[in-house]
């Protein structure tokens, strides 16, 4: 929704709130709003002004009703790989997540990977939640993982990667082995 639409919606909500307050005041016994309404119906110039105001409120209500019922297409976030004279080449966030998972799985000791990517003006920020094997040196593994993901994204997608954050969320536990 654009800034203008938000401002008009806020104005519309304020007007509806004021009309609701006036209606509640009439129900409570305050007659001034009724007197003003009767005055607007008696004189033709006031009637024209009241009619124009009601028409504007009706049009705004219909516009926001239709805008609210219209399905919005989900916007897929994309990163620009290359901008050229003929146009831009982009890659979707889902495709980048697949590349990150593929790179992470190449590091020995990484069992599960859950990537969280964010496209920044300076490049792609990568945050990984991982589960590791219990027999690995975690500082060495995370360093190797950061390097692998960085190199893989730079070489395959051509994007800058200003940060690769790794969070070890679990140690993989194998079930008991059966010996027969």
Automatic annotation (TrEMBL):
Keywords: Membrane, Transmembrane, Transmembrane helix. It comes from the Bacteria. The chain crosses the membrane at residues 48-66. NCBIfam families: anchor_AmaP. This is Alkaline shock response membrane anchor protein AmaP. It comes from Neomoorella humiferrea.
